[in-house]
Design brief:
Elements lengths: L1 E8 L11 E10 L4 E4 L2 H12 L4 H15 L9 E8 L4 E6 L21 H5 L10 H8 L7 H4 L1 H9 L1 E2 L2 H9 L1 H7 L17 E2 L2 H13 L2 H4 L1 H12 L7 H5 L4 E3 L2 E5 L2 E5 L5 H14 L11 H21 L10 H4 L2 H8 L25 E8 L5 E10 L55 E5 L2 E7 L6 H13 L5 H6 L3 E2 L7 E4 L4 H9 L4 E4 L6 E5 L5 E5 L6 E4 L1
Parallel strand pairs: 16-17
Antiparallel strand pairs: 1-2, 2-19, 3-11, 3-20, 4-5, 4-12, 5-8, 6-7, 9-10, 10-13, 11-12, 13-14, 14-18, 15-16, 18-19
Helix pairs in contact: 1-2, 2-6, 6-9, 13-14, 13-17
Keywords: Acyltransferase, Glutathione biosynthesis, Hydrolase, Transferase, Zymogen
Protein name: Glutathione hydrolase proenzyme
Pathway: Sulfur metabolism; glutathione metabolism
């Protein structure tokens, strides 16, 4: 077994039950053991603990999500939503859509002022930005695939919240950076705001969140969507301009959808359908890039980046025009990923120069903001069950509103609708009528949890956070492994790039090859350097049943073994 470990002894405390030692494990190679890869070592360990208790991949991934709600509050959540993609040993593939929905009082023009101008501050911050949370309903929908009862699955998260844990440098920096936002959008002092700045080793104890989790443990989903927690959430709505009602909470339903499946060079890709744009984009981008035989080039070389960027450009233009909640629009996925359509889309590609985005859609000025989501990849010891989950509050700490008395942050997912057709959201994504706001509708997402099967068995489990960069990062991960035959570590940690039709720029990480950048600029590509793109969590299973799990080096992401 190969294991690379970074051990950080953050805090020495007299109460041994508190979680004060953080062991960040970036890579493992194992056989006959289950593994969990997530954004936080304590969350991965919570999932691994459940595997050791006899749970399967679905038990573990649910426990990890609960734990992330405690130890990774900027994205892990019970106040948001997500998508799960599963593949079982009997050949069954399924997805669970617990994306947030628009409240009953939501309306198409709810974020427009009297002059018809979009007020994106209202869709991104505060109580009016909140969609009906789906996470808890999603966890209970997953339960039918689990082996253990929910009261066991949730317990590690309760322990983490009640006993407390030492935060890392990155977590301290994140909390400090959001101090003013927390103060602006909360009517009372919250535990995430201190008199002095947060620092590594500080203990974060969340008693209110622990009590909320105990209500769920005792009462099931009703412990969140009804009763005390629901009352506290609605009371929080009434402190501002929030529109979620008790009826909205009680009526929330998950959607169990047929997985989107397609072939890529002999492998079966299983991913999320609409309202995730991610799966459709992934199919479009991989199939268009395949027209140019990527495998004959080198990773991140100029022709490879050009081919992949141009596939991204065309796919994201389609995202803006065609994609939304399939319960509200005509689902054109089959057409959009068909060879006939994509070959026609690809006709304008040229190695000589960049295709102007104006040739594939109407140019609109874009803002540029950050994103925070989180992904978990899990496989159990026999490789019999694989699960990929991407979950989010949307922006960092969502709406920045903490439910007083319940201890959890609420999402700002309403911004993922087209606030006004043609007006970009916080990630610069443009949408049209297909993604306009309607009551009970799910907002379009970029989350792309993905499983790849070879000969019917799990080969890759992959996903990442990153807003609109999610599909392109998963796309690159698959190309790196399938086309370039790179291992999981190189694929996850290699410098990434991203393009989304609008804006015209191609984002590249700071350590991206300078020669490629220069050659792309000579072909009229506009290049922008960024600190990092995504945090990919990947599991690969080879022909000998060796499991190779890698957590992204860009964050505190970590692998845990059963």
């Amino acid at each position: 077994m190969k294991k690379l470990i970074i051990s950080i002894i953050l805090f020495s405390h007299s109460v041994s039950a508190q979680y004060t030692d953080i062991n960040i494990v970036k890579e493992v190679k194992v056989k006959n053991k289950g593994v969990v890869v997530s954004a936080h070592p304590l969350a991965s360990e919570a999932g691994a603990k459940i595997l050791k208790m006899g749970g399967n991949a679905y038990d573990a991934i649910t426990a990890t999500q609960y734990a992330l709600a405690v130890v990774y509050p900027q994205a892990g959540n019970i106040g948001g939503g997500g998508f799960l993609v599963g593949a079982k040993s009997n050949g069954e593939k399924f997805t669970i859509d617990y994306r947030e929905t628009a409240p009953k009082k939501a309306s198409r023009d709810m974020y427009l002022d009297k002059n018809g101008k979009a007020n994106t501050d209202l869709s991104q911050n505060g109580r009016l930005a909140v969609g009906i949370p789906g996470s808890i309903a999603g966890f209970f929908a997953t339960l039918k695939y689990c082996k253990l009862p929910m009261n066991q699955i949730i317990q590690p998260a309760i322990d983490l919240a009640e006993k407390g844990f030492a935060i890392t440098d990155k977590e301290a920096d994140m909390l400090n950076s959001q101090r003013e936002h927390f103060q602006k959008h909360n009517k009372s002092t919250i535990l995430f705001v201190k008199d002095t700045p947060w620092k590594a080793g500080d203990l974060l104890i969340q008693k209110e969140l622990a009590e909320t989790l105990k209500l769920i443990q005792k009462l099931g989903a009703k412990g969140f969507y009804e009763g005390k927690t629901a009352d506290l959430l609605i009371a929080e709505m009434k402190k501002g301009n929030g529109i979620i009602t008790l009826e909205d909470l009680k009526n929330y339903k998950v959607a169990e959808r047929k997985a989107l499946e397609f072939d890529y060079k002999g492998s079966n890709v299983v991913t999320m359908p609409l309202p995730s744009s991610g799966g459709v984009l992934l199919a479009q981008m991989l199939r268009m890039a395949a027209f140019e035989n990527l495998e004959k080039y080198q990773q991140n070389s100029t022709p490879v980046v050009q081919i992949m960027v141009e596939a991204e450009r065309r796919a994201y233009a389609d995202r803006a025009e065609y994609m939304g909640d399939p319960d509200f629009i005509e689902d054109k996925t089959s057409y959009l990923i068909s060879d006939e359509y994509l070959k026609n889309r690809w006709k304008s590609f040229s190695f000589n120069k960049a295709t102007p985005s104006s040739e594939v859609g109407k140019i609109i000025k874009q803002p540029k903001e950050s994103t925070e989501t989180t992904h978990i990849s899990v496989i159990d010891k026999d490789g019999n069950a694989a699960a990929a989950v991407t979950t989010t509050l949307n922006g960092y700490y969502g709406s920045k509103v903490l439910v007083t008395g319940a201890g959890f942050f609420l999402n700002n997912e309403m911004d993922d609708f087209s606030v006004k057709p043609g007006v970009p959201n916080m990630f610069g994504a443009v949408g049209g009528e297909a993604n306009s706001i309607q009551p009970n509708k799910r907002m379009l997402s970029s989350m792309t949890p993905t499983i790849i099967l070879k000969n019917g068995k799990p080969y890759m489990v992959v996903g990442t956070p990153g807003g609109t960069t999610i599909p392109t990062s998963v796309y690159q991960s698959i190309v790196d492994v399938v086309d370039f035959k790179l291992n999981a570590n190189i694929s996850v940690n290699a410098p990434k790039f991203h393009h989304q039709w609008l804006p015209e720029t191609v984002s590249v990480e700071n350590n991206f090859p300078e020669a490629t950048i220069s050659e792309l600029k000579a072909k009229n590509y506009v290049i922008e350097k960024v600190k990092y793109i995504g945090k990919t969590e990947m599991i690969l299973i080879d022909d000998t049943a060796t499991i190779h799990a890698v957590a992204d080096g860009r964050g505190d992401d970590s692998v845990a073994v059963e």
